[in-house]
Design brief:
9-stranded mixed sheet, two-stranded antiparallel ribbon, alpha/beta, Carbamate kinase
Length: 238
């Protein structure tokens, strides 16, 4: 029996990168992620997905280089739609009914977000990809994931990454890095751990919404997460 009925899966745009590349979308990687989601949907779990755009365009670096921040963030939000359409295509090929709901109107490609439409579609068994971030500049897709999770009354936010949890140092750079099994939201804030941005963590803490950080690229991990197996790092309310 799954431990969670409704989950939000947060993915960075980099999750779709082709191997050994800093730009673009790997269809093979998208299909691999789609298979992980499909295995969870088959268990009756309702899944919403929020994906970033770092594989295409990041607003913050562009604004640091002189571009107007609002313009840069708008471009980043548009890039999330590209990633969402790629993932939708992969999910449909896995026979997973999928809708892309955007934070701003873009009717030719997707449907505008509304809480009622999202909750109805999730209840009917469709996987929802929430594109366009929050629809506002100056907010990250981490915050969008927390916001959508609260709006659709998700049980947990699962953040799929390339590492198997939250560490006290970068495990790629330090062999002495230690993984945390459990943390509170306040631990994340106090220790300045890069789990999600401060706004997202604060929103989850206020709502007592748990987070799970895990390796999405290890086959079967997403299913283990929703079944309640001990993987990754759990961030919980005190």
């Amino acid at each position: 029996m799954p431990k969670f009925k409704r989950v939000i899966l947060k993915l960075s745009g980099e999750a779709l990168l082709p191997p050994d590349s800093k730009y673009g979308i790997s269809l093979d990687v998208a299909h691999g992620i789609a298979q992980e989601i499909a295995s969870v949907v088959q268990k009756g779990v309702q899944v919403g997905v929020v994906i970033g755009a770092g594989n295409i365009f990041r607003g913050s670096p562009a604004s640091s280089g002189g571009m107007d921040r609002t313009t840069a963030d708008n471009m980043g939000m548009l890039a999330t739609v590209i990633n969402s359409l790629a993932l939708q295509d992969a999910l449909i090929k896995e026979n997973v009914p999928t809708r892309v709901l955007t934070a701003f109107p873009i009717h030719q490609m997707a449907e505008p977000f509304s809480q009622r439409a999202a909750m109805r579609s999730l209840s009917e068994g469709s996987t929802i990809i929430f594109a366009g971030g929050t629809g506002n500049p100056y907010f990250t897709t981490d915050t969008a994931a927390a916001l959508r999770a609260l709006e659709v009354h998700a049980d947990i936010v699962c953040k799929g990454t390339k590492v198997d949890g939250v560490y006290d140092a970068d495990p790629v750079k330090s062999s002495k890095a230690t993984r945390f099994q459990k943390l509170t939201h306040m631990d994340v804030i106090r220790k300045k751990l890069e789990v999600m941005d401060l706004t997202a963590i604060s929103m989850c803490m206020d709502a007592k919404l748990p987070l799970l950080v895990f390796n999405i690229f290890r086959k079967g991990n997403f299913l283990k997460a929703v079944m309640g197996e001990e993987i990754g790092t759990v961030v919980y309310a005190e």
